[in-house]
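[09:14] KT: can someone run the structure on this one? pasting the chain below
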Amino acid sequence: MALFPVQGIEQLDAEKIKFSSKSLPNFISFYPYFGTLVMMLLSLAWFIKKASLLRTLRIIFFGTSWISCALLRELAVHWPQLCRVWAKCEQTTNLGYPTNLTLKCHCFIFIYIMTAVCEHGLALSNAFSEAAACGDALRNLCTHWFPQVFNLVPFYRPLAIIIMTINTIATFTFNFVDLLLITTGYILANLLTQYNRVLEEDSHKIKLPSYYWTVKFQIYNDMISLANIVFGRVSKLLLLSFFISVSLICFQLYFNLTWRDFYYMSTTKAVNSLLLDFSLLHGQRL
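[09:31] RB: done, structure tokens below
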């Protein structure tokens, strides 16, 4: 809801899916949008005072998250129309999908999300344990992770909680973008696979109606038009996802090889290596 403010997205009827600028999901989506924007601007101001690789990383992190929120909002505006075009193509082609497609998508989403949650949870738990050894865990953690904020204003616990929330949403924004791209592409690919399967089955028939290839060619044009529309809507997100994945892998490789900590706290080499392995696993999805 906060990242993709579309109403009725769980409905099977495409006519019930809509986007409204006056809806509650749309207002909620402004929270991560403006939150990541403010954090990016603060990180940029902090970088201007003294340039460093870590400060560059914070700009990239919050900047790409803000761009992701903006692109997701743009896609959400056009999502109801895209769903209607997709539904019309399904009715026209009448090809259907494999029976276990929904189960595969649900299993993949569950495994992917749990992997991301475990990765983020390991980082947070390790950072909190290190910070707690020096006193107030939340204060030490936030002042160390977000100096671009608490070098300007004194530590305030409600503000720290808000910033931690924005940071968590920003982290999982990348996972949501990747899941949206992967599942959309996978379902579309299965629709095209069904078309190829029908052609292969009909090729074994001895005699086909005279209008057969005319109908199949029209179905092919409808599916190609759908694919072009889908890729036209998600192409910006796809490019951004590629940039994020490559940047994340490069940064984590650098910090791992130089024995510096990606999460700005002194963690053990085992945790560092585990986080690197998870990131490489995520990067391979491209």
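[09:33] KT: thanks! DSSP finds nine helices and no strands in the chain.
[09:34] RB: yep, looked fine to me
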